[in-house]
């Protein structure tokens, strides 16, 4: 059984992981008539990620992660149950880089200079080095990890567009706080995430149901949109008597001529 400590959970939710492990043992005994069922419980601390419904939420502090882990350690001191959990300090650093910005580049470089390399392995990971690197770079990890983002705050990853709209993620975040489930769009109504309409992605459901994104309003496949933009640009350029390719052709021709002549200018143009 693998569990993940999620935002908004209570201690009762955490301890429910231990109860589930015991239920597995009891069910095994009920079916087989004897005990001895070996159960392994693995948990990972939640790390909020970009372009998810929880990109706004704070991550648990190091002390809080460890407190929850201790709850499970005590609750799972049961014969034939093994408890494994993700290193809390590694989770904190994952949180920093998951939602960090360009300022972390200097910290990353300083940590590498200090000897941090291949630290995906536990014996190579040194939390103190990372903390020192962040401090020297003037970066506060709590700014990335432990604060609630405002609804209108712009994020450093939003110059990349995976297709899912911010409005959809905000709605999902609100639904999560109300403990409301979102139905699988492959087997029912479109949830309006934006992927199908923006990227022209066909939705495939291997359970036998089908969903055609082209039936959605204002659906325009990506290839068609790109072609229409190019067509509009060419039309506008033609109307203005301007050749869109002329600057590029002229630059290549000039570079070729300079190289043939062996002049110093050739190097500048080529670069």
Attribute tags:
single chain, 271 residues, mainly alpha, 3 domains, three-stranded parallel beta sheet, 5 strands, 7% strand
Can you put this structure into words, describing what you see?
Helices cover 48% and strands 7% of the residues. It is mainly alpha-helical. It is built from 11 helices and 5 strands, in the order E-H-E-H-E-H-H-H-H-H-H-E-E-H-H-H. Helix 1 packs parallel to helix 2 and helix 4 packs across helix 5. The strands form 2 sheets. Strands 1-2-3 form a 3-stranded parallel beta sheet, with helices on one face. The protein has 3 domains: 144 residues, no CATH class; 50 residues, no CATH class; 47 residues, no CATH class. The relative contact order is 0.08.
Write a compact overview of the structure shown.
The chain has 271 residues and is mostly helical. It has 11 helices and 5 strands; from the N terminus they run βαβαβααααααββααα.
Layout of helices and strands, plus pairs?
Blueprint: E1 2-5, H1 11-32, E2 39-45, H2 62-75, E3 81-85, H3 88-98, H4 104-113, H5 127-136, H6 141-145, H7 166-177, H8 195-199, E4 203-204, E5 210-211, H9 222-239, H10 246-261, H11 265-270
Parallel strand pairs: 1-2, 2-3
Antiparallel strand pairs: 4-5
């Amino acid at each position: 059984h693998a569990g993940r400590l999620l935002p908004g959970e209570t201690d009762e939710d955490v301890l429910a992981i231990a109860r589930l492990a015991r239920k597995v043992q009891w069910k095994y005994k009920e079916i087989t008539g004897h005990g001895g069922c070996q159960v392994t419980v693995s948990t990972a601390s939640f790390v909020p990620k970009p372009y998810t419904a929880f990109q706004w939420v704070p991550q648990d502090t190091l002390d809080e992660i460890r407190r929850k882990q201790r709850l499970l350690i005590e609750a799972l001191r049961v014969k034939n149950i093994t408890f494994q959990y993700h290193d809390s300090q590694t989770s904190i650093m994952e949180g920093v880089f998951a939602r960090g910005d360009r300022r972390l580049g200097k910290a990353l470089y300083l940590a590498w200079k200090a000897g941090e390399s291949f630290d995906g392995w536990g014996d190579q990971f040194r939390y103190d080095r990372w903390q020192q690197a962040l401090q020297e770079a003037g970066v506060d990890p709590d700014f990335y990890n432990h604060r609630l983002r405002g609804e209108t705050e712009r994020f450093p990853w939003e110059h990349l567009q995976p297709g899912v709209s911010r409005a959809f993620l905000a709605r999902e975040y609100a639904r999560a706080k109300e403990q409301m489930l979102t139905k699988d769009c492959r087997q029912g109504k479109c949830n309006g995430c934006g992927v199908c309409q923006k990227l022209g992605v066909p939705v495939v459901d291997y359970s036998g149901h089908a969903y055609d994104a082209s039936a959605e309003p204002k659906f325009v496949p990506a290839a068609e949109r790109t072609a229409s933009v190019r067509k509009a640009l060419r039309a506008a350029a033609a109307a203005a008597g301007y050749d869109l390719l002329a600057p590029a052709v002229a630059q290549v021709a000039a570079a070729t001529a300079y190289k043939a002549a062996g002049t110093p200018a050739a190097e500048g143009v080529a670069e």
